[in-house]
Amino acid sequence: MRNVWRDVLDPIIPYETGTPPERLAAQLGLPELVRLSANENPLGPSPRVVAAIAREAARVHLYPDGGAHALREALARRLGVRPEQLVFGNGADELLGLLALAAFERGDEVIVPQPAFEPYAISVMLAGARVVPSPLAGYETDLDDMRRKITDRTKAVILCSPHNPAATIIRRTPLLRFLDALGADPPLVVLDEAYRDFADDPEYPDGVALLGRFPRLIVLRTFSKIAALAGLRVGYAVATAETCDRLNRVRAPYNVNRLGQIAALAALEDPEHWDKSRRLVLEERAFLSEGLRTRGYTFPPSQANFLLVKVPDAPALREKLLRAGILVRDGASVGFPGHLRISLGLRETNEKLLGVL
Fold first, then answer.
1. Which of 54, 306, 337, 343 is deepest in the core (most CB within 10 A)?
2. What is the CATH number assigned to the segment(s) 47-269?
3. Per-residue model confidence (pLDDT) at position 132
4. pTM summary value
């Protein structure tokens, strides 16, 4: 029989996004369900974003700007880089796919932390390259283990800081030591900083500031978290102009939609809302952390907008919270059985969660 599908697809498990909260609430007979399972921004987007989308809605019959020129120029000014050092994607997920298309070939190896955000490994496998897993040291990225696993076949190393789902960071001194140790001809180093805006550790490094020193570094960021644009899917890579040129050669012409570009540009024009989102997360992270500790729960100190909490019976507790109208993520689905990953909500929701516990 003719084999029409690639063999590489067989071991890949599709990313599970879960039942939409509205449908799940209806199935459970609940008036509403608060989703604390997807690390979304509970504050929602800036009013300027909402207004900009409304103004642009009548123009959705027109193709978007394929080069996202206005957004690129505005973001380049904010970051202090050149516009040609930016590539936008339909979420950071697409950028991982572009990197795989542009760089990974059969026989290549890519070192990936384990556990971690599932699309890291999926993009490598789809390219026909080999995933070299690097287990976390508890909840921390093990840079020493990654360094030992680098060979002549290593095409890239993927780092995530703050880490999803552990919520820990790679501090500046260990990161610089690791990057320096890679030498004059290093592999690509992908640094996913999706949750960077919620980190307040003074030792948290700025990946973009390191690009001049490490030209094979690729920094991934997103408007999904801090700007609350998860539903519009706007991520971006910051790298050298040469790297961005290679990514653009495999990028679809209109990969970021018109409303996404308009919304991201409006979000950049409202730094006060950006700061408000950050303050909310820092305040609620401290509040929920203290509440959990007083109830005897343990978890790694978070630098993100979620907590990875160790619990005695994760499935049962998740079900109990669900029946109370709060949806959290079972840690088993993200590589941490015996844990729940809990996104930070508004104060009312966090108080309700603690009350159930």
1. 306
2. 3.40.640.10
3. 98
4. 0.95
